[in-house]
Amino acid sequence: MTLLLLIAFIGIPIIEIAGFITVGSWIGLWWTLGTVLLTAIVGTALVRSQSTSVLARINEQLGAGEMPAQALFDGLCLLVAALLLLTPGFFTDAIGIALLLPPVRALIAPLLLAWAQRRGNLSFAGMGGGGSGGFGFSYSGGTGRTSGSAPDIIDGEAEVVETGPEKQIPPSRD
Prior knowledge:
With 174 residues, the protein is mostly helical. It has five helices and two strands. The chain has a domain at 10-128. α3 packs antiparallel against α4 (90-100). The termini are far apart.
Protein backbone atom coordinates (compact mmCIF):
# COMPACT_ATOMS: atom_id res chain seq x y z
CA MET A 1 0.00 0.00 0.00
CA THR A 2 2.87 2.34 0.80
CA LEU A 3 4.44 1.62 -2.57
CA LEU A 4 1.14 2.35 -4.29
CA LEU A 5 0.85 5.72 -2.53
CA LEU A 6 4.46 6.55 -3.38
CA ILE A 7 3.84 5.76 -7.04
CA ALA A 8 0.65 7.84 -7.00
CA PHE A 9 2.28 10.88 -5.40
CA ILE A 10 5.24 10.77 -7.76
CA GLY A 11 3.70 9.28 -10.89
CA ILE A 12 0.54 11.38 -11.17
CA PRO A 13 2.36 14.75 -11.07
CA ILE A 14 4.82 13.50 -13.68
CA ILE A 15 1.94 12.39 -15.92
CA GLU A 16 0.18 15.74 -15.40
CA ILE A 17 3.30 17.77 -16.20
CA ALA A 18 3.92 15.71 -19.33
CA GLY A 19 0.27 16.24 -20.30
CA PHE A 20 0.53 20.01 -19.80
CA ILE A 21 3.67 20.17 -21.91
CA THR A 22 2.19 18.02 -24.69
CA VAL A 23 -1.18 19.77 -24.85
CA GLY A 24 0.49 23.17 -24.45
CA SER A 25 2.71 22.47 -27.45
CA TRP A 26 -0.37 21.54 -29.50
CA ILE A 27 -2.77 24.34 -28.58
CA GLY A 28 -0.69 26.92 -26.70
CA LEU A 29 -0.39 28.02 -23.09
CA TRP A 30 -3.58 30.09 -22.73
CA TRP A 31 -5.82 27.52 -24.41
CA THR A 32 -4.32 24.83 -22.19
CA LEU A 33 -4.98 26.84 -19.03
CA GLY A 34 -8.48 27.71 -20.26
CA THR A 35 -9.23 24.05 -20.93
CA VAL A 36 -8.11 23.05 -17.44
CA LEU A 37 -10.25 25.81 -15.91
CA LEU A 38 -13.23 24.87 -18.07
CA THR A 39 -13.04 21.19 -17.09
CA ALA A 40 -12.99 22.18 -13.42
CA ILE A 41 -16.08 24.40 -13.83
CA VAL A 42 -18.06 21.91 -15.94
CA GLY A 43 -17.03 19.02 -13.69
CA THR A 44 -18.12 20.86 -10.57
CA ALA A 45 -21.52 21.59 -12.13
CA LEU A 46 -21.95 17.94 -13.13
CA VAL A 47 -20.95 16.73 -9.66
CA ARG A 48 -23.41 19.14 -8.07
CA SER A 49 -26.33 17.98 -10.23
CA GLN A 50 -25.55 14.28 -9.79
CA SER A 51 -24.96 14.59 -6.04
CA THR A 52 -28.43 16.07 -5.62
CA SER A 53 -29.85 13.01 -7.37
CA VAL A 54 -27.77 10.64 -5.24
CA LEU A 55 -28.87 12.36 -2.01
CA ALA A 56 -32.50 12.03 -3.09
CA ARG A 57 -31.98 8.29 -3.74
CA ILE A 58 -30.31 7.83 -0.35
CA ASN A 59 -33.20 9.57 1.44
CA GLU A 60 -35.77 7.59 -0.55
CA GLN A 61 -34.13 4.25 0.23
CA LEU A 62 -33.63 5.09 3.90
CA GLY A 63 -37.28 6.13 4.10
CA ALA A 64 -38.25 2.74 2.67
CA GLY A 65 -36.12 0.97 5.28
CA GLU A 66 -33.50 -0.19 2.75
CA MET A 67 -29.73 0.08 2.95
CA PRO A 68 -28.68 2.55 0.20
CA ALA A 69 -25.38 0.78 -0.56
CA GLN A 70 -25.28 1.57 -4.28
CA ALA A 71 -26.29 5.19 -3.70
CA LEU A 72 -23.60 5.55 -1.03
CA PHE A 73 -21.03 4.08 -3.41
CA ASP A 74 -22.19 6.52 -6.10
CA GLY A 75 -21.81 9.36 -3.61
CA LEU A 76 -18.28 8.23 -2.78
CA CYS A 77 -17.43 8.11 -6.50
CA LEU A 78 -18.84 11.62 -6.95
CA LEU A 79 -16.71 12.88 -4.06
CA VAL A 80 -13.58 11.39 -5.59
CA ALA A 81 -14.60 12.76 -9.01
CA ALA A 82 -15.03 16.25 -7.54
CA LEU A 83 -11.59 16.13 -5.95
CA LEU A 84 -10.01 14.91 -9.18
CA LEU A 85 -11.78 17.52 -11.30
CA LEU A 86 -10.66 20.32 -9.00
CA THR A 87 -7.06 19.09 -9.23
CA PRO A 88 -5.45 20.76 -12.24
CA GLY A 89 -4.46 18.32 -14.95
CA PHE A 90 -5.78 16.33 -17.86
CA PHE A 91 -5.13 12.87 -16.39
CA THR A 92 -7.02 13.55 -13.15
CA ASP A 93 -9.79 15.27 -15.12
CA ALA A 94 -10.17 12.21 -17.35
CA ILE A 95 -10.50 9.92 -14.32
CA GLY A 96 -12.88 12.37 -12.63
CA ILE A 97 -15.12 12.59 -15.70
CA ALA A 98 -15.10 8.79 -15.99
CA LEU A 99 -16.31 8.51 -12.38
CA LEU A 100 -19.23 10.79 -13.26
CA LEU A 101 -20.53 8.20 -15.73
CA PRO A 102 -22.94 5.67 -14.13
CA PRO A 103 -21.79 2.77 -16.39
CA VAL A 104 -18.20 3.29 -15.23
CA ARG A 105 -19.34 3.28 -11.59
CA ALA A 106 -21.30 0.08 -12.27
CA LEU A 107 -18.11 -1.54 -13.58
CA ILE A 108 -16.01 -0.33 -10.66
CA ALA A 109 -18.41 -1.45 -7.89
CA PRO A 110 -17.90 -5.23 -8.24
CA LEU A 111 -14.15 -4.80 -8.71
CA LEU A 112 -13.88 -2.70 -5.56
CA LEU A 113 -16.05 -5.18 -3.65
CA ALA A 114 -13.86 -8.11 -4.75
CA TRP A 115 -10.73 -6.19 -3.76
CA ALA A 116 -12.18 -5.33 -0.35
CA GLN A 117 -13.17 -8.97 0.25
CA ARG A 118 -9.61 -10.11 -0.53
CA ARG A 119 -8.14 -7.47 1.80
CA GLY A 120 -10.07 -8.22 4.94
CA ASN A 121 -13.17 -9.30 6.75
CA LEU A 122 -15.70 -7.99 4.29
CA SER A 123 -18.73 -10.12 3.55
CA PHE A 124 -20.73 -10.02 0.36
CA ALA A 125 -24.34 -8.97 0.97
CA GLY A 126 -25.73 -9.18 -2.54
CA MET A 127 -25.60 -7.81 -6.03
CA GLY A 128 -28.76 -6.77 -7.75
CA GLY A 129 -30.06 -4.31 -10.22
CA GLY A 130 -33.02 -2.12 -10.82
CA GLY A 131 -33.01 0.20 -7.85
CA SER A 132 -33.07 -2.55 -5.24
CA GLY A 133 -30.01 -1.19 -3.54
CA GLY A 134 -27.43 -2.53 -5.98
CA PHE A 135 -24.39 -3.96 -4.30
CA GLY A 136 -23.90 -4.09 -0.60
CA PHE A 137 -21.28 -5.12 1.85
CA SER A 138 -20.76 -5.31 5.56
CA TYR A 139 -17.75 -5.46 7.80
CA SER A 140 -17.97 -8.74 9.63
CA GLY A 141 -15.03 -9.13 11.85
CA GLY A 142 -11.99 -8.18 13.68
CA THR A 143 -11.56 -8.12 17.41
CA GLY A 144 -11.62 -4.37 17.69
CA ARG A 145 -8.14 -4.49 19.22
CA THR A 146 -4.91 -3.23 17.86
CA SER A 147 -2.14 -5.81 17.63
CA GLY A 148 -0.43 -6.45 20.91
CA SER A 149 -3.21 -5.17 23.15
CA ALA A 150 -4.65 -7.38 25.87
CA PRO A 151 -8.27 -8.50 25.60
CA ASP A 152 -10.82 -6.95 27.91
CA ILE A 153 -11.94 -9.75 30.22
CA ILE A 154 -14.44 -9.22 32.98
CA ASP A 155 -14.57 -12.11 35.44
CA GLY A 156 -17.68 -12.43 37.55
CA GLU A 157 -20.33 -14.69 39.01
CA ALA A 158 -24.04 -14.70 38.42
CA GLU A 159 -26.91 -16.08 40.46
CA VAL A 160 -30.35 -16.77 39.06
CA VAL A 161 -33.02 -15.40 41.37
CA GLU A 162 -36.53 -16.66 40.84
CA THR A 163 -39.39 -14.70 42.27
CA GLY A 164 -42.83 -15.94 43.02
CA PRO A 165 -46.02 -14.38 41.78
CA GLU A 166 -46.06 -10.78 42.76
CA LYS A 167 -48.89 -9.37 44.81
CA GLN A 168 -51.00 -7.21 42.59
CA ILE A 169 -52.26 -3.92 43.89
CA PRO A 170 -55.68 -2.99 42.61
CA PRO A 171 -55.86 0.39 40.88
CA SER A 172 -57.09 3.21 43.08
CA ARG A 173 -60.42 4.82 42.33
CA ASP A 174 -59.63 8.41 43.20
